[in-house]
Amino acid sequence: MSKRWNHKVIEVPYKLFAEKLNDRVQQELDKMGAQGWELVSVTSSHDYSLRLFFKREA
After folding, report:
1. How far is Cα 38 from Cα 26, in angstroms, rounded to an integer?
2. The organism sits in which domain of life (predicted)?
3. Strand order in the sheet with 5-13
4. For site-directed labelling of 1, which of 22, 26, 46, 54 has its Cα 20 to 30 A away?
5. What long-range pairs does 37-40 form, CB within 8 A, spacing at least 24?
6. pLDDT tier at 25 (50, 70, 90 boundaries)?
7. Is the dihedral of CA 39, 30, 11, 13 positive or negative?
């Protein structure tokens, strides 16, 4: 029997006066990892943000 997965997409926008993008992405990765989510892909969107794609077993 194949595994079932839950999926989640999080957008991290580029912000001119916010903390560094690397720090904000690291915070999201740590938060999602603590909840059992695994990062599977990252893309840059045309609206100036990063999209983080996660999965975890259902």
Report:
1. 13
2. Bacteria
3. 5-13, 49-57, 38-44
4. 54
5. 37/8
6. very high
7. negative
